[in-house]
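Researcher: Good morning. I'm working through a list of sequences from a screen, and I'd like to move beyond sequence-only analysis. For each chain I'm collecting a predicted structure so we can compare shapes side by side. This is the next one on the list. No need for commentary yet; just the structure.
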Amino acid sequence: MKIAESKVEIITPINGKEILEHIERVGRVCYKSENNITDESAEKFVAGIVRRGHEAVIEHYNITVKFTTDRGITHEIVRHRIASYAQESTRYCNYSKDKFSNEIAVIRPVDIKEGTPEDADWRAAMEAAEKFYFALLADGCKPQTARSVLPTCTKTEIMVTMNLREWRHFIRLRGSEAAHPDIRILALDLWKQLREQIPVIFDEIRFD
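Model: Good morning. Structure tokens for this chain:
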């Protein structure tokens, strides 16, 4: 059994200047002000769009993000409807194979600290799940049947594509203190990355 780490990876190459210029070209059609486009006008225009809440314009740019997390957290992620998803499938992935190092991978919940009594109980449960998963495969079950004993915190990878407006919604919702702590870590990590690369779109979102 392997304990994996949660991770956020932005897959779409991001050029903040080009993204703002793209959004400006789209947005200025609303006002027929394309003649006002200059080499330096995009940032101010998009900042005004965001400030006025005209967020339909920023729907015209999509970003794909890869989350490494547990399957329970992906159940929350896929509740966001304005998105496209591609997820590692326990139906087709056979974790007894060499490509998976012949073991299941799990994500330790952030509320369980390493070396604590609850960590020992959690590890025992994960090891038992792995044991019976492999036993079912050895008995002739297909992965789609053996997966029934895999735990909620089985590590998975999911590709998520959303437009900028929906990413803003995702970050606000999942980055709040009311969110599940494991998804909150992912949302805040993503927020920091996007705020650094496209500050005009994400800088005004705050959690402090």
